[in-house]
Structures are given as C-alpha cells and as structure tokens.
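Exercise: predict the fold of this chain.
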Amino acid sequence: MLEPNQFKENEAWVAFQLNDDPVRTMQDGNFNCVALMDAASGIILGTAFVSVAEQEPPALELRRLFETSVERSNCNPVTLFIPKGKYQSAVPAEAKRHGIEVVPVQESELVALTGEARQGFREHFQGPPA
C-alpha cells in the first residue's frame, strides 16, 4: 500500500474519484468528482466534476485541472498514480503532455493516500455518520 511518507511534497500526485455515489443536481444530472492530490501532503490541488456518462473529464476540463494543479503546486510531479481500470486515455495523455509519468495501481493501494479526502467529501455531501 502506498503511504504519504513514501513521497516528498510534489514528487507524486494521485488522480482519483472523491465521491462514492454520484453527486446529484436537479438541473444538470449526476456527476462524479475527479481530484488531483499531492501524495505526500494530501492537499487536493484541483477538482473537476464529470458527468456520470463520461469515463474521464473532457480534454478542456482536464487541461484546466492540470494547469490549476501545476499553478497551486508551483511544479509538475514526477509521477501520477491512477487507479487501474480508470482514466485510461485522456488523463494519461494530459499527464504525459506535462512530462509526468503515469503509474496505474490497484485502487486498494491508494486508500492510505485518498481515504481521508474521500471521507471528508462524503461527510460534506452526505453529512457525518449517524
């Protein structure tokens, strides 16, 4: 399992889905929230809401997500971890455009990195556990 203490700040990022269940909106339908997060610090550098009908953010949204994340961190990471079976084309292509190596890993390997952020998102949208 990957742990935050294995990395230096801005050495590696993680692309992952913050939500368990789709975020429902009355006007625009259901969305997933994709985040880019620094693996060492746990700081979320950027997010994008993606229609549940889409597998990945659209190219323009993805470009904005990466540019915002680079701006907030003041650099590109060396590595981007993505869950195996997700984000297989557009996210890796955008990462490579920024010179970032993409490393697919089992989603279970990311839990120590993403668990707290996912829990916070869950509580924000669904309220604290009863």
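Check your answer against the key: The CA atoms of residues 28 and 51 lie 9 Å apart.
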